[in-house]
């Protein structure tokens, strides 16, 4: 038995785009979305109901479709991080990483020795893999969220931390921290996002962000590889169009 390959990490390492879907909340949703050939599923454990009791089924559904399961936990806690991985996640996303030290803590909780301090337990992803502890670090993904203005101010130092796969610039909380609650389109917010994404790439690291239908082209042209989108917007848009078409048919 060989360790399962992390599809998102592979695509990023190859210089390709990686497509990540969020908003899928149960295994059946993941199965229904499976044929769309995305690369990863963002499982929401900060604002959603993902926890140790349902994580096994969610990540197994991801495995069936060769999706990389990336779980956003709700705090930068090493024990929480490696328990999430032990339950079957292939990647960890940690919110509000504002300093170099906080970024290093994420790595320490995600990686086994000699890189980090992850507890020595064979994850479900490692069942039957004889050399799991030797190879797990290579397939375990680390995403840190840059979502506060203090993180922007400390970005150059944060970018020096090794073994982080993606530095994800999160727009909503960033806008709030800048005093523009709910106004993601504000020029100062957009300029800050664009600058952060450029700085990440200038440092030779991989940038990610929320890329919606109206903005994905912009971010791809800017060099962003890790593209996350929520299914909720597509559902709302489709439902609105469906109703409009029905109403037009009556006139």
Write the layout of secondary structure elements.
Layout: H1 7-13, E1 18-22, H2 27-33, E2 40-44, H3 52-64, E3 68-72, H4 78-86, E4 91-94, H5 100-110, H6 132-139, E5 141-146, H7 149-153, H8 155-158, E6 166-169, H9 171-177, H10 187-202, E7 207-210, H11 216-221, E8 226-230, H12 231-249
Helix pairs in contact: 2-3, 4-5
Descriptors for this entry?
single chain, about 250 residues, alpha/beta, TIM Barrel, 8-stranded parallel beta barrel, about 45% helix
Polypeptide structure, described:
The protein is α/β, with parallel strands linked by helices. The chain has helices at 7-13, 27-33, 52-64, 78-86, 100-110, 132-139, 149-153, 155-158, 171-177, 187-202, 216-221, 231-249; strands at 18-22, 40-44, 68-72, 91-94, 141-146, 166-169, 207-210, 226-230. The protein has a single domain (7-249), classed as TIM Barrel (Alpha-Beta Barrel), CATH 3.20.20.60. α11 (216-221) links the parallel β7 and β8. α2 runs parallel beside α3 (52-64) and α4 packs parallel to α5. The protein is globular. The relative contact order is 0.13.
At CATH level 3, the topology is: TIM Barrel
Main sheet attributes: strand count, strand direction, barrel closure: 8 strands, parallel, barrel
Tell me the name of the CATH homologous superfamily: Phosphoenolpyruvate-binding domains
Report the radius of gyration as a whole number of Å: 18 Å
Main sheet: which strands, in order across?
A: 1-2-3-4-5-6-7-8
Q: What is the CATH-assigned architecture? A: Alpha-Beta Barrel
Identify low-pLDDT runs. none
Q: Which percent band covers the strand fraction?
A: 15-25%
Number of strands: 8
The total of helices stands at: 12
């Amino acid at each position: 038995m060989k360790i399962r390959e992390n599809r998102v990490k592979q695509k990023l390492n190859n210089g390709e785009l990686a497509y990540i879907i969020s908003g899928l909340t149960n295994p059946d949703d993941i199965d229904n979305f499976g044929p769309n050939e995305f690369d990863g599923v963002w499982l929401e454990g900060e604002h959603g109901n993902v926890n140790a009791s349902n994580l096994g089924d969610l990540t197994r559904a991801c495995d069936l479709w060769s999706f990389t399961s990336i779980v956003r936990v709700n705090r930068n806690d090493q024990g929480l991080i490696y328990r999430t991985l032990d339950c079957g996640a292939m990647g960890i996303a940690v919110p509000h990483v504002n300093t170099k030290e906080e970024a290093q803590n994420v790595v320490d909780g995600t990686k086994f020795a000699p890189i980090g301090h992850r507890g020595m337990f064979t994850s479900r992803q490692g069942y039957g893999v004889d050399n799991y502890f030797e190879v797990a670090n290579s397939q375990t993904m680390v995403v840190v969220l840059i979502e506060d203005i203090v993180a922007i101010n400390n970005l150059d130092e944060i970018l020096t931390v090794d073994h982080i796969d993606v530095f994800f610039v999160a727009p909503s909380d960033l806008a709030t921290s800048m005093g523009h609650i709910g106004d993601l389109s504000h020029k100062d917010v957009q300029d800050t996002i664009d600058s952060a994404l450029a700085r990440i790439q200038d440092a030779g690291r991989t940038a990610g962000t929320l890329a919606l239908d109206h903005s994905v082209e912009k971010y791809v042209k800017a060099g962003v590889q890790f593209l996350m989108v929520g299914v909720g917007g597509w559902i709302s848009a489709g439902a609105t169009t469906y109703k409009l078409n029905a109403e037009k048919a009556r006139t």
